[in-house]
Specification:
homodimer; 345 residues; alpha/beta; Aspartate Aminotransferase, domain 1; Aspartate Aminotransferase, domain 2; seven-stranded mixed β-sheet; four-stranded antiparallel β-sheet; 11 helices; 17% strand
Chain lengths: 345, 345
């Protein structure tokens, strides 16, 4: 199982509704009023989406506070990442990370260089110094499954290394809004006109819309043009297009979600820290990587599945062993349920 | 403008609602009851679509009457075509045809060999005899923009040529259901277990859902496996997944649509044939390619735009000159409107 969120595979193994801790979705769900917006857009399903996504890009440009000519959209963040990879000479991934960085590179016949994260899951900047021209360095920020966000100074250092080498830095910030307020990469790199850098975000996680498939991002005009030559036409569907013209203006929902996750992150982390035999890693986002000191992932997975909880086994991240699991931060009732179940272990 | 259906570009040039003759969508719209199905599936937008699309593929397998292990799905037919192209050594396109065959090949750095259709837009089978190992021959069946469907005997001959060369035949049958009942490629190639052939269809045209993005197809098990390694995860969104589990069982709608188009095809073709200065080509589907004898496409396009009708200029198909336009077959009232406007020319 390369990805979380695959409840269908397990639905016959538990008598009741499964709780999904394996995919990291905002527990508050999508903004209010979205269903009505989608219903209104049904009539547009019988025509093609705007092939240039003019209204959608305007909405994203306002939300990200970046010029519209720097905006990219795609069928989920993964499609945009895929398009960057197609254009790269080869790809550098820091491991462990989202498996698709490597998988997409392999799909397009690109060489993959792996640079392991350090023991504490910070980036090995020293090892990045040999980056070469046209290489694409992909970094999760925060990274998945470790939950670690790159400190601002490190990010600037990495960017300077990448620029000097005439390589390219791709930041996957699909979980950006869940993070404590620190810096905004889109703001930071604006003064460079996003030369040599791409920042990808998505409606998937924070806006709780994995099914609608809406990824977006921001990069230099030259790269936007390059990617426009290879991206699939009409890759964002009509309903995702309509959703993207609606959700980003919901400031109250956005702030409420951030506050909610901050409180639950603190609660779940502290509770997990008290449980003997497991060790949660510090996280900046809405999921927690856990080291299993006494059991392997399979045992813990099945133990929790019997209790209706589906978590993420982490050996599927390839560069993690079977002594790690990842859990989403959900609403309080479910977080308590997870903690109680883990205490029973 | 590489594609039809881009009304947004022209909306300020006409005071009223534009009628879209530039994209070829079933004028009866989608099957009844679809909106209710989509509304019910809204709650599933907050989880990922089934990454294996088990229920969707079951529905498609029933509709196509082929084994489920031969079924492919994608974000529109164009994504599936794209995946075949990624795996090919190089690509053969017969011209003129849907521009994306060539564009996708270029995007992935594949060489493109062009074999022009004959003067009457039948396939130059003689010229196909030099097809080589691992080449991907893409044929529109019926072809876009010519509207010509490959006769069954020719199709078998072409398949035999392709198999002998150990090449691969990809049939783009996005307009299949609009055609007069003759043969079903999926039935024909079943006895070969779809070795060396892929057949692509879509909800886009016949089910009038270009905005929902649902393509599907059928190929040999080996190719399904090969493509599964490179296709994007979750490429079909939740609502397209739900739609695909619903629309194909609507036999009455399907038959009604076929009959409707057959009648309007006959009507529009006959009416267009009477107009001096234009020459419609024989078509097997729901659009008509027209040769302009007295004007160029730009003049006719603007003439019709002033009357609220958007047609397709055909020089954008690259291998057609500016003396051709393509019009969709729509409902009677709109077809009459088109005929009347063209008479005024």
């Amino acid at each position: 199982m390369k990805h979380g969120g695959d409840l269908l595979t397990y639905e016959n193994q538990y008598d009741g509704e499964l709780i999904d801790f394996s995919s990291n979705i905002n527990p508050l769900g999508p903004p209010n009023g979205l269903n009505e917006v989608l219903i209104k857009s049904f009539k547009e399903m019988t025509t093609y989406p705007d092939i240039k996504y003019r209204k959608l890009k305007t909405s994203i440009s306002n939300y990200l506070n970046c010029p519209i000519e720097n905006v990219l959209v795609g069928n989920g963040a993964v499609e945009i990442i895929n398009n960057f990879i197609i254009r790269a000479k080869n790809v550098i991934v820091c491991t462990p990370s989202f498996i698709e960085y490597e998988e997409r590179a392999i799909a397009h016949g690109k060489q993959v260089r792996k640079i392991p994260y350090k023991k504490d899951y910070t980036i090995d900047i020293e090892a990045l110094k040999n980056i070469k021209e046209n290489e694409l360095l992909i970094l999760g920020n925060p990274n998945n499954p470790t939950g670690f966000r790159i400190p601002q100074d490190d990010l600037i250092n990495i960017y300077n290394l990448v620029r000097k080498a005439e390589a390219f830095l791709l930041l996957d910030e699909a979980f950006y809004e869940f993070c404590p307020k620190d810096y905004d990469s889109i703001e930071i790199f604006k003064k460079y006109d996003y030369e040599g850098v791409g920042i990808i975000r998505a409606a998937t996680k924070f806006f709780a819309l994995p099914g609608i498939r809406l990824g977006y991002g921001c990069t230099c005009v030259e790269k936007v043009r390059e990617i426009s030559k290879i991206e699939l036409p009409w890759s964002v569907n009509t309903l995702a297009d309509a959703a993207g013209q609606y959700i980003f203006s919901h400031k109250e929902y956005i702030n409420k979600s951030k506050d909610y996750i901050a409180i639950e992150r603190k609660f779940l982390f502290e509770e997990l820290s008290k449980i003997v035999g497991i060790q949660p890693y510090i996280t900046h986002t809405n999921y927690i990587l856990i080291k299993l000191e006494k059991w392997d992932e399979e045992y813990v997975f099945n133990f929790l599945l019997k209790r209706g909880l589906v978590i993420r086994k982490c050996s599927s991240f390839k560069d993690l062993d079977d002594k790690h699991i990842r859990v989403a931060i959900k609403d309080r009732a479910n977080n308590v349920r997870l903690v109680e179940a883990l205490k029973e272990l």
